[in-house]
Amino acid sequence: MKRFKKQSSSKANEAVTTWIAQAIVNVQFKWSNWMYKKTSRWNKKEQSLFLYLILLVFGGISGLIMYRTITGKTSKDSAGQHSFAGPMTRPGVKKIHDPGNQSQPDTTAFSRFYHYIDSVGTTPAGKKQLDSFFRARPHFIDSVKEAERIIRRNF
Fold first, then answer.
1. For residue 29, how many other CB atoms are within 10 A of its CB?
2. What does the domain layout of the chain look like in residue ranges?
3. How far is CA 140 from the centre of its chain?
4. What residues form DSSP beta bridges with 76?
5. How far apart are CA 54 and CA 46, in angstroms?
6. What is the rounded distance in angstroms from the CA atom of residue 120 to the CA atom of residue 128?
7. What is the pLDDT of residues 67-109, one digit of tens each?
8. Considering the entire predicted model, what is its pTM?
């Protein structure tokens, strides 16, 4: 039984791919020439200062992203509202996950996941999207519940 279909390679696809690759290399070449012209007269101290400045900026951005990811804090827009509004649930909607009386508290990741899945199903469009997702992946929720059970058992 063949698992993979043989992909047909046409000359048109190769030409487009070659053109895109050449365009990327051309942009990189122009940018490197421009940077060389700007920095060719810099001494070692100025080059080091520029490098440290770039490292500081990108390191700060990366650190901020990691901090917000770990703490779960979101930024506020100009009106003082959170820029990400989490999913909402409507009363009377059947929930996929009902924790019931569990001896251990839900982990945050699973709670957020179940809340998101439950809230997506509140609108007709979201329900249709969930149904198509679950039809394409029939044992997805079972796998998530099994993963949650394993994690709870180990902690």
1. 10
2. 14-71, 88-155
3. 19
4. 82
5. 12
6. 10
7. 888 887 665 555 555 555 455 555 555 555 555 444 445 567 7
8. 0.33
Rounded to whole angstroms, the Cα distance separating 141 from 123 reads 20
Those residues with Cβ within 8 angstroms of residue 12's Cβ, 6 or more apart along the chain or in another chain = none
Report yes or no: 104 and 152 within 8 Å, Cβ to Cβ. Answer: yes
Q: Does residue 89 contact residue 115 with C-beta atoms inside 8 Å?
A: yes
Question: What distance lies between CA 32 and its chain's CA centroid?
Answer: 30
129-148, pLDDT tens digit by residue?
888 888 888 888 888 888 77
What distance in Å separates the CA atoms of residue 29 and residue 32, rounded to the nearest whole number? 5
DSSP states of 27-94: HHHHHHHHHHHHHTT--HHHHHHHHHHHHHHHHHHHHHHHHHHHH----B-TTSSBSSPPP---TTPP
**Total length of the chain:** 155
Q: Which two tokens stand for residue 9?
A: 């390679």
Residue where the block lists tokens 């820029």? 83
